[in-house]
Backbone:
């Protein structure tokens, strides 16, 4: 999935140059520069090769190597990764071996992934084609957002998704860590944030540091988002004093745009945020601090007479103007703590510092407008992977398309890249992998490869291969849907399961946000995601391939009798599949002799999860 | 998979009794008894319910519970679990809820697994049938042996297999941790054991303690085996002075019965073993210490004139008698360190202490002979799951069948149970789950349930269900073979993969030890286990089901035209499946323009695994 250019390698350095290089390295070594990150990358690389090839990593060194991959890098890593840090590398593979060269470790990380893409099992071991690759990304900000608020994302799930991001050379993990439905980051200074606002499901600061280190190992920055002044009900459960209305507040259980918002007219709010931003900017080392800013409906402000007075006194004609005031104050706080603010379109306000990044959910028009005024931006509109669109539909969206295509070359440089957004209303630990992958690999390619690479059929051919590789990385986007389907099938016979599978293979979840509109599945914390709609991947490969075949047949490009017969056979199979699906079978538990029905699991009672215990007796409550 | 007896519950205790019981509990609490193990079991239970049902564990407690599972236990756990510790429990499920009662925590662990077996998804949540179960195991020693020497077993693989053992109520993990092909336990007192004898792949003492704690949480004892005086080449790499021949020795790379053996005539050997056993009996808290003792071919003893002299001086007529001498000395050392010895048949020697356990690979005749002389024993003959037998073939073997069936009731009590043995010549991290599961669940049932439960068809029906559940536990016995098959298929089209799958679905690996005899796959450390034979499960469900149908048709019990048509359709499908399998396709990497061929992975070079690094340049050597 990388932009591969077949290019002549730059000439070998002269011997003397190399010698001087060696001396420099030795000198460096004396000065203590050591890149443990690359050692660990080497370990992961071998482990991944082992998985992909099924070969053993032998502990022996006696036998001479048949071929060697030599990795060279010139500079040590920066202490905190920055957007724009050089990720270029060259990879040369000849029958004699392979050479990977990069100016700095980031390039090595990217090049190793390319090598892993090239490798395949051969009769005697494995092999990689002879190529000469000179490669670097088009955009410096290639992100994936995971919303850990609506549904908590366990650490192991985050980690394997970071592994997936590394495999497709993404470099920003945008951690949407607070929202109405849960405040998920531990705060030592304001402990009621996670204490009252998370229902117990939050990341400790140690876990956060662990995840940041894990991401850094993979050349991935972690940008935390604390959405404000809206999307903040969970903050107010513990700290109602910074809200615009008196409360009481609760952790929201539905999804949608909520009324509660911070009080932008109260100095307490800014004192609170000063402490909070001070703590969090220390915890998250990245230069950018995401302050959200989206979807404030203004109802809470309208309901508060003091806020109305403040608006009048400042001559603000709209709540938008009031939010501008809030944004300006918060951006100053972020700067005060040495960071630059990033936020959704709404933070692009008059007088905003020039170092902010506009995160656009609105689209390229907004992005272009910001760039014209000298502001950096990234695009997420078109990359909302929770909408269940096809990979192709995301793939054609380019951060530099639409209005942004008309920017000057200098202005275009301000468009740093984009982010796929995994909002988690209908996403939990179990199906998140298959919601993100493999589609996000297509988006990652969009961010990395030349704008001219747009062939959708070619993309799908490569997506099949990368999807396979992502399973070896440890993601469960293929295996888990099958398990979920088995659970739905219950005590089905193999034939019945095959029938369900055949049906499921051509289904896709409803698109956009229509699921919430047409069903009652809006209660995030209690709606189980164990339905057929949750178990089928966003995009049906079977349906797509059939569609391709039908299209070719219909437009005449492939109309031989053979294809007609294939299409007919397939249609007949689907028609005949209805009978086994209709077979009358007992659903789930047989209750003929009575049974205990439990509605849901309750981890907050006396059993383990909350730590409570009554001597030798405990209760697991099922609601 | 448990022996379920539908039984009237014992009458409720009187109120006063319960009150006095409560007082006792409170008193205990004051004295500091706290069973954190049960809290953790509760957490695991809810997590497993979440996985099996797809329901959310909610953090809320506000809504009243629809039904409750009340768990009660009378006594605290023993500090070190013993064979025979009470595992009985009663489980009563009524429409009002469920009650699980057990004398001690082990019974609770077993009962929770039964509850998990009973639960299924219902339209509104989940449900369990109304039952009253009074349950306890038939045998107290229900073991699984994993050979971590021939192929190192990563910690996470061991852990998920312990989870599987818990699910099928097994209680002994026999850790075959040293053999010719690797000494895998860290020794602080004799550091060259793992240092020179493991090739770097060993468990630290911290990891060992972690695994023991993990097993204990699941009601599983860990019995370590250090095989001696044979099966010990790896010991001699670092300590040739205790061997019978001068060496030098190496970590064995082939498999089979090897010549090297400890020198039983040298006092140094016993001094060494005294130190070693002293250290290891502290590390492994279980009362039993497995000293192996099997397969000494005597060649090393024959080759050493001093040993010959010793035999003459002691009037030993055979090497067996010499081994008896060795066994007697080692058993005394084990006793000296406060433990009882367990070993293979060979340790059953005249004068052996009465507290030893004979671990029989020879069969029930040997076991019965030992029992008649008052010795305890366990059976593994018939449970060698590395032989690739069907579940049915293992299932019919009973520790009390054959000669053991004729023992007196008192003698029968000396037969403690059995162990399934996962020897790992052809087993690694990737396929071990599918070698162990689900077949071992059938063996576990044999150990737990009444001897009269022998219906093979009924067993298979239940095995399908438990196999499903084991996937939810985290085992990969179903998902990994599919991935391995995909790797073999390489860049196959979906149709081609389906054809390979159809073939693979009716294949089974060669049985017994014929693979080693008919191929050159005897080099353990270098033979990749990425072939078709490694990817197909030991037993084909498709073939078994077809066989059942054919048998019923042939014997006349089911000879209608419909069945005949089904059989014909299936046979036609298999016949027609050959064409897509034969389609000529490029294998693996296209080498048209040349390619780099690598034979295998070498982790011992300059890249990560060994920790070595040359400044900013490192080499991944491919042999």
Residues:
């Amino acid at each position: 999935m990388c932009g591969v250019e077949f290019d002549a390698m730059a000439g070998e350095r002269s011997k003397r140059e190399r010698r001087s290089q060696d001396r420099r390295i030795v000198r460096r070594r004396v000065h203590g520069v050591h890149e443990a990150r690359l050692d660990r990358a080497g370990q992961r690389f071998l482990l991944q090769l082992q998985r992909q090839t099924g070969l053993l990593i032998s502990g022996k060194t006696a036998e001479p190597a048949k071929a060697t991959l030599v990795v060279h890098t010139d500079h040590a890593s920066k202490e905190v990764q920055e957007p724009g840090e050089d990720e270029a590398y060259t990879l040369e593979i000849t029958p004699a071996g392979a050479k990977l060269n990069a100016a700095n470790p980031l390039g090595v990380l990217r090049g190793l992934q390319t090598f892993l893409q090239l490798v395949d099992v051969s009769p005697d071991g494995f092999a990689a084609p002879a190529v000469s690759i000179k490669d670097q990304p088009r955009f410096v900000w290639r992100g994936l957002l995971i919303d850990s608020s609506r549904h908590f994302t366990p650490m192991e799930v985050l980690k394997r998704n970071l592994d997936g991001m590394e495999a497709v050379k993404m470099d920003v993990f945008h951690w949407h860590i607070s929202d109405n439905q849960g405040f998920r980051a531990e705060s030592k200074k304001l402990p009621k944030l996670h204490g009252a606002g998370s229902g117990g499901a939050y990341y400790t600061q140690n876990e956060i540091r662990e995840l940041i280190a894990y991401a850094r190992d993979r050349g991935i920055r972690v940008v935390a988002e604390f959405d404000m002044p809206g999307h903040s009900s969970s903050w107010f459960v513990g700290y109602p004093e910074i809200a615009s209305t008196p409360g009481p507040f609760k952790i929201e259980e539905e999804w949608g745009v909520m009324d509660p918002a911070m009080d932008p007219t109260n100095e307490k709010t800014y004192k609170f945020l000063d402490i909070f931003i001070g703590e969090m900017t220390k915890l998250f080392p990245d230069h950018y601090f995401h302050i959200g800013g989206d979807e404030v409906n203004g109802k809470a402000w309208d309901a508060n007479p003091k806020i109305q007075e403040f608006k009048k006194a400042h001559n603000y004609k709209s709540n938008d103007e009031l939010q501008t005031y809030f944004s300006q104050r918060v951006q100053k706080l972020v700067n005060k703590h040495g960071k630059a603010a990033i936020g959704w379109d709404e933070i692009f306000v008059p007088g905003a510092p020039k170092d902010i990044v506009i995160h656009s959910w609105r689209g390229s028009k907004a992005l272009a407008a910001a760039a014209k005024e000298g502001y950096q931006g990234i695009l997420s509109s078109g990359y909302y992977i929770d909408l269940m669109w096809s990979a192709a539909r995301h793939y054609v969206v380019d951060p530099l398309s639409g209005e942004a295509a008309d920017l000057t070359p200098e202005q275009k440089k301000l468009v740093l890249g984009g982010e796929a957004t995994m909002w988690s209303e209908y996403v939990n630990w179990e199906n998140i992998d298959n919601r993100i992958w493999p589609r996000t690999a297509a988006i990652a390619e969009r961010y990395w490869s030349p704008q001219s690479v747009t062939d959708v059929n070619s993309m799908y051919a490569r997506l099949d291969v990368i999807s396979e590789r992502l399973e070896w990385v440890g993601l469960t986007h293929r295996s888990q849907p099958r398990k979920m389907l088995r659970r739905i099938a219950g005590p089905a016979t193999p034939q019945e399961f095959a029938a369900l599978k055949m049906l499921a293979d051509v289904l896709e979840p409803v698109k956009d946000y229509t699921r919430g509109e047409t069903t009652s599945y809006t209660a995030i914390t209690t709606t189980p995601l164990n339905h057929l709609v949750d178990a089928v991947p966003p995009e049906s490969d079977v349906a797509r391939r059939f569609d391709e075949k039908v299209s070719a047949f219909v437009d005449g490009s492939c109309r031989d009798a053979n294809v007609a017969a294939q299409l007919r056979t397939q249609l007949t199979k689907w028609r005949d599949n209805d009978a086994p699906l209709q077979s009358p079978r007992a659903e789930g538990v047989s209750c003929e002799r009575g049974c205990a029905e439990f509605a849901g699991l309750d981890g907050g009672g006396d059993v383990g999860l909350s730590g409570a215990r009554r001597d030798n007796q405990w209760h697991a409550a099922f609601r």
